[in-house]
C-alpha cells in the first residue's frame, strides 16, 4: 500500500514517513512541496494521500483538486493534516473530498489508528474491485462461449438447409457478407453488423419444408408453386422464433421479413416502410443482389452493373431508400466479395477436375 505524503515542513515530513513505515505493508511516497507533486503527475502511483493543509503556493485543498483532475486518482482517499480547527477550513477540505483529518502536532497513536482504518478500507475496496473485475471477465468469457455455441448452431443449420443444393450454402454466405457490408455503411453498431452477418445465412431456412419438386425444379415455378414457395418465410421464422438466443431471434426476424417490400406489396405480412425490421430491409437487398448476379435454373446471371441499376431504380418502392444508399456506398466491398467467391468456386472446380478418379471413388 503506497501512501503519498506532502508537507513543506521537513520535520513533519520525516515524522509522517517514519509513522507510515510502522504500518504493515505500507510504503511512504514523500514530497516536500506541491510543485514537486504536480510535476511528477500522473506518473506517481499511490493508494492513499496524506496532505498538509497549509503550504505555500498551493494549500492542501488546491493541490488535491489538481491531483484528482487525473482519472487514476479520482477514488484515492485523502487525509488532510492541519493545525487549524476552524470549521470553514474543515468544510473546505470535506468539500474537496477529505475522508479524515489529522491535527498538528500529529499524535503517533492517533495517526496509526486513523490511517490503519483507511488502509484497511482501501484494501477491502481493492479486493472488491478485483472481484468485480474477475466477475466481469468471467461473464464476458461465458457470453463469448455462448455466442460461439450459437454461431455453431447457425452454421450447422445453414449446412443442413443447403444439403440438397450446394449452391444454396454459397448463396447464404454471400448474402451474409453483403448484408454486413450494407449494415456497416448505414453506420449501425459493430455488434449489430457482426450479428447480421451471423444470422443472415438463416434467411431461407424455411425452404427445408419445401417439397423437392418445387425446391429443385429446373425452370420457372407455376403460380401455385410460387405461392407454396412463399410460405418458406413464415416457416423459417416459426422454426427459429422459439429460441431464447438473441442471435436466433434475429435470424427469425430476418427469415420472416426479407421478402417484405418498402411499398407494402411483399410477403408474408405485407409490411411497409419502417414497420419492416431494419435487418429484413438490409437482407432483402443483399438477397436480391445475389439472386440476380448468379445463374438460376430459370435465368442467366445478370451483370454487376445491370443488377446495381435495377436495385437503385427500386429505391422507395421495393427497397428502403436509406438501405439502397448504403448499398451504393458499399459497392466496392460488395464487388470484392462477389469476385472472391467466384475465384474460390473456380479453384474448387479446378481441383475437382484434376482429382484422380480413384480418389473420387474413395
UniProtKB/TrEMBL annotation:
The modification 4-aspartylphosphate is found at residue 52. It comes from Ciceribacter sichuanensis. One of its GO terms (biological process) is phosphorelay signal transduction system. InterPro entries: CheY-like_superfamily (IPR011006), Cyclic_di-GMP/3'3'-cGAMP_PDE (IPR052020), HD/PDEase_dom (IPR003607), HD_domain (IPR006674), HD_GYP_dom (IPR037522), Sig_transdc_resp-reg_receiver (IPR001789). Residues 2-119 form the Response regulatory domain. The lineage of its organism: Bacteria, Pseudomonadati, Pseudomonadota, Alphaproteobacteria, Hyphomicrobiales. This is Response regulator. Residues 146-343 form the HD-GYP domain. Keywords: Phosphoprotein. GO terms for molecular function: phosphoric diester hydrolase activity. Residues 168-292 form the HD domain.
Amino acid at each position: 500500500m503506497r501512501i503519498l505524503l506532502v508537507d513543506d515542513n521537513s520535520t513533519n515530513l520525516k515524522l509522517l514517513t517514519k509513522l507510515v513505515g510502522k504500518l504493515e505493508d505500507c510504503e511512504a511516497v514523500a514530497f516536500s512541496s506541491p510543485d514537486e507533486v504536480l510535476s511528477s503527475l500522473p506518473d506517481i502511483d499511490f493508494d492513499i494521500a496524506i496532505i498538509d493543509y497549509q503550504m505555500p503556493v498551493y494549500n492542501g485543498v488546491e493541490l488535491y483538486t489538481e491531483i484528482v483532475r487525473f482519472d487514476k486518482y479520482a477514488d484515492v482517499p485523502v487525509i488532510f493534516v492541519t493545525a487549524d480547527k476552524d470549521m470553514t477550513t474543515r468544510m473546505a477540505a470535506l468539500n474537496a473530498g477529505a475522508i479524515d483529518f489529522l491535527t498538528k502536532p500529529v499524535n503517533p497513536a492517533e495517526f496509526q489508528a486513523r490511517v490503519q482504518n483507511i488502509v484497511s478500507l482501501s484494501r477491502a475496496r481493492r479486493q472488491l474491485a478485483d472481484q468485480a473485475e474477475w466477475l466481469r471477465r468471467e461473464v464476458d468469457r461465458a457470453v463469448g462461449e455462448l455466442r460461439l455455441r450459437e454461431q455453431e448452431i447457425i452454421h450447422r443449420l445453414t449446412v443442413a438447409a443447403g444439403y440438397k443444393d450446394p449452391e444454396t450454402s454459397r448463396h447464404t454466405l454471400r448474402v451474409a457478407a453483403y448484408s454486413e457490408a450494407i449494415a456497416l455503411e448505414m453506420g449501425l453498431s459493430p455488434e449489430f453488423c457482426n450479428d447480421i452477418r451471423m444470422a443472415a445465412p438463416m434467411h431461407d431456412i424455411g425452404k427445408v419444408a419445401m417439397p423437392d419438386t418445387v425446391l429443385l425444379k429446373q425452370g420457372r415455378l407455376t403460380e401455385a408453386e410460387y405461392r407454396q414457395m412463399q410460405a418458406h418465410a413464415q416457416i423459417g421464422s416459426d422454426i427459429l422464433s422459439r429460441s431464447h438466443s438473441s442471435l436466433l431471434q434475429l435470424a427469425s426476424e430476418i427469415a420472416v421479413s426479407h421478402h417484405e417490400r418498402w411499398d407494402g406489396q411483399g410477403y408474408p405480412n405485407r409490411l411497409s416502410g419502417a414497420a419492416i425490421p431494419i435487418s429484413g430491409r438490409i437482407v432483402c437487398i443483399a438477397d436480391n443482389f445475389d439472386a440476380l448476379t448468379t445463374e438460376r435454373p430459370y435465368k442467366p446471371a445478370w451483370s454487376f452493373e445491370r443488377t446495381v441499376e435495377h436495385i437503385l431504380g427500386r429505391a422507395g418502392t421495393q427497397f428502403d431508400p436509406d438501405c439502397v444508399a448504403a448499398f451504393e456506398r458499399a459497392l466496392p466491398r460488395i464487388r470484392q466479395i462477389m469476385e472472391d467467391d467466384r475465384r474460390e468456386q473456380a479453384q474448387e472446380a479446378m481441383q475437382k477436375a484434376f482429382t484422380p478418379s480413384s480418389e473420387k471413388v474413395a
